[in-house]
Amino acid sequence: MIVGIIGLGLIGGSMAIDLKRRGFATTVLGVEADPVHAAAAEKMGLADELVSYEDCIGRSDIVVIAVPVGTAVKMLPDILDRFQAAGARDKIVIDTCSTKSRIVRSVHYHPSRGQYVATHPMAGTEYSGPWAAMPNLFDGRACIFANAEESSDKALRTVERLYDVLNMRLTYMNADNHDVHTAYVSHISHVTSFALALTVLDKERDEKHIFDLASGGFSSTVRLAKSNAEMWVPILTQNRDNILQVMDTYIEKMKDFREAIAEGDQDRIESLIHEANRIKKILR
Questions:
Q1: 2-173 in CATH: which number?
Q2: pLDDT digits 0-9 by tens, 178-202
């Protein structure tokens, strides 16, 4: 199996490491547009060869799109066009993007749609680039397959095997439902982290020692604010409506806390905290 990975950052690079190390891929071809990232990926040995975009598509059995979703939406139809033009009916392409509705719609009527499997491996850190790639990143994490019924049986079974090798838990859902769920469990976390970081940075202008007092709680809460803007701008714009709905709910909850604190209503504050503590039944 020759696996071509377009984008050797955190997700693509980590996938390259484990697919080769665990024997799924005999050869890993890498595509990296950024020359600095390309040099780093080559030095780190993330791929067996660094090749051109065209060479990767032509030689790979499976092409993995691991680039920001704004780029991926434009790239996917082109890859399927190339499959069709070459009569390459056994080739497969997957994406790893964290929004699914728009990218799935972009190829819904494509003659080679069955060769595409829409996936979202829900793993990662706040770091980006080839330097962030690591083994075992995906172990035990969830991978979402979106609109799997639109993929051919062969393509679906092959990609399921790929993620089994990465030790991921497979879940299947509609692309629109996926985007609603990720708005709640992932995207809002990043927005609030960005906002908290901006709030503290504003205060730091006046009080130079505020970061000296930062504890583990602050570090874990604001960790996601280190995330790459190139990745998150298209996510937040493509999933805008769902994220706005979640933000409105979040703002209402913040208002509840603000009112209770402003009024010194200890019973109400305690009630809100106890209500929030119910999350422990879900996140253990």
A1: 3.40.50.720
A2: 999 999 988 999 899 899 888 888 8
